[in-house]
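Lab channel / #folding
Pinned by the channel admin:
"Please post every new chain as: sequence first, then the C-alpha cells as a reply. Keep commentary short and put observations after the output so the thread stays searchable."

First post following the new format, from NK:
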Amino acid sequence: SNRAEENRLREDLRDLKDSLPDEVRKAILKLEAEHSTRRTWVWARLGRAPLVMALKSLVDLAQLTAEPLGGGSVMEIAEAYVDRGWKADRAVLDALATVQQQHDVDAVQNALLPLYEQWLQREAEKFQQAIQQAPTAYVPSPAPVTDPGTCIVFADALRYDVGQRLVAALNERDWHCTSAWGLAALPTVTDTAKPAVSPAHDGIQGSTTPSITPVSKTTGTRLTAEVLRRLLQAQGWQTLSSDELGDPTGRAWTEAGAIDSCGHQYGWRIAHHVRNEVRLLADRAESLLEHGWKQIVFITDHGWLMLPGGLPKADMPIHLTELRKGRCAVLKTGAQTDQPTVPWHWNPHIRIAVAPGIRCYEAGKEYEHGGISPQECVAPIITVTPKVVP
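Reply from TO:
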C-alpha cells in the first residue's frame, strides 16, 4: 500500500512541471491532505517513503513563496529575508535532501521549480532595484569587534539559512548562540568579501587596475590566503589550522567548512552535504570552547544561489569586460552596459556588472554567487559562548 501511494505521489508531482505557481500550490496542498498520514507509518520511519517526507518541505515552500518579501528599501528587504525569507531556501534544501533515486529527484524538482525560480527571480530583482535607487544604503558589515578570548571561525559561503541550522545544532549541544547579520561586500565573491570581514581589513586596499582581488597596503602584494594570514599575524592574531586549538587568552582566526567547494562541485546535490557541513562546524566550535576560548564568532563572506537544472543565462559582450565570473563581471574602463552595476568594494572607480535577477554569465550553473540577491548578500554573524550555570 505504501509503495503504491509513493508511486501515485511521484506521478502527481512529476505532472506539475511547467505548471503555474498558483496551480502548483493548490496541487501540493491537496496532495498533503491525501498523503500526510503516511508520515506516521512504519515505512516512513524506515526511509521507504521519501516522497511523502519531501512533501512536507514542499508545503512549506508553497506557503513561504506565496507572498513577496516585504519592504522596498535595501534594509527592509534584508530584514524581511532574515525574518522569514530564508526559510524558503531551507525548505528547498530539505526537500532535495530527502530524495536519492533519480525518479524521486525528478518528481521533487518538477514540483519545486515553478515555485522557487519565480520567487528567487522576483526577490533578486527587487533587491537590485533597491540598491540601484539608493546605492549608499547598502553598507557592508565590518569585521566583528572582539575581546581577548575570542576565536573567529571563517566559514566560506555560510548562507543565512545554513547559519540558522548551525545555531540550532549548537543550541542542541547546550551552547549559547546569538545570531546577527550583515551585508556582504560587493561583488559577493571570496576574493573581495573575505578580506572585508577579516580583522586585517585596515591593512588591505584595492588595486588600481580592474580586479576583484585587493592587495596588501604595505607591499602591494595580491591578497592570497597566505598574504591574509601574514597580515593577521602582524596584528597579533593567531592563525590556526583546522585542527589547532591555540592560546585561548589571546585572539585567533581559523577557517572551517567546505560549503562553497561542495556547491561548485556538486550543484543542487549540495543539499545532501549541508547537514554534514553544519555538524563539522559545530564540532569545531565545540572543540575550541572546550579548550578554553570564551567565545567563538562565525563569520562568512557571501551566500549563494542554487537552482536545480541551472540558473538562467545572461548575455554580456566579452569586449566590455576585463574579467568575468559566474554572476558578475569587471567592466573595462569606459564600458557601457544596461545591466546593473555597482562599485567595487575596494576601489569605487572600478565598476562591476551584476547579472540581472538570478541570471548567470555562464550557462548550466546550478550553484553560483557573485551577484546581488538576499541569498548572496545577507550574511550571518553567529556568536557562541558557554551557557552560564546559575
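NK: The chain has a mean pLDDT of 96.
TO: also worth noting, DSSP finds twelve helices and 14 strands in the chain.
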